[in-house]
Amino acid sequence: MQIVNYKNQSTNFKAAFPVQHWFAESVNGSYALADMQTAKKLQGKIIRMLNRPSAENTAKQLVPREQNFITYMESCDSDYRKMCELERKIQQERKCKNFDSKKYKPITKVRSFYDRESSNVSSYSPLAYIISGKDIEPFEEGLAKNIGKEKKNAKELLSHPYSPQTLQAIDLYNTCGLNFVNNPDLRIKDKKTGMTYVLHTKFEIIRNKLGKIKDYRFVDARFLPEYGPESPFTKLGYTK
Question: Which residues of 86-103 are buried (b: 16+ CB within 10 A; e: fewer)?
Fold first, then answer.
């Protein structure tokens, strides 16, 4: 699977998009599509990278390929860029003597959604999605937080978190969450053709001395068309 940097793509980036995670034994190795368990690990790395505070004095500095990815995302996703700009503004204000830290909450620039249903239909259906910017709050308030509330209520009444109401909230989250991230008004599209885009990532396996996988190293990530001849799945012979 090859990721190409489309410098001239005329995309209309909004606030939600699918993510396909790929991994290989080496940078030049043959890439495989991640299953749900691996996708969650790789998605977590992407989310932490994009949510990382942009302060220059952060203890652990990003390697160039990670910083390049963040810069790329800022250029692609206007909602993500606005959140980064807000964060940088707040960091500048923190230097002022009259700064009131109680007025500001930690900024969440991106969050995940996982599609646990469609993965049973097709091996190359997106397992993970990213929601960015202003659409995070309505998603969390309308869907995600309901699960936590019902689990808490169930623990108080039943001594375990899974009541019928909890399962109903989870089902609503899965169904409405998928509709949310695939909303045509939120999806990334080409301005001219309307073609939707998917973020494809590449990771390299890191093994310990015994040969067991201990981690994954980020290699690259780019937006590619979801369908058509430039889609990785079309190139691999899948029908999309």
Answer: ebeeeeeeeeeeeeeeee
User: How many CB atoms are located within 10 Å of the residue 136 CB?
Assistant: 21
Angle at 144 between CA 143 and CA 147, to 5 degrees: 100
Q: Which residues make beta-bridge pairs with 72?
A: none
Main-chain dihedrals φ then ψ at residue 105, nearest 5 degrees: -100, 155
> 10 Å Cβ neighbour count for 197?
23
Close Cβ partners of 3 (under 8 Å, ≥ 6 residues apart): 200, 202, 220, 221, 222, 224
Q: What are phi and psi of 189, to 5 degrees?
A: -135, 155
pLDDT higher for 6 or 198?
A: 198
pLDDT tens profile 178-197: 999 988 888 888 778 888 89
Residue 135 binned pLDDT confidence (cut-offs 50, 70, 90): confident
d(CA 30, CA 10): 30
Single pTM value for the model: 0.86
C-alpha closest to that of 113 among 18, 21, 34: 18
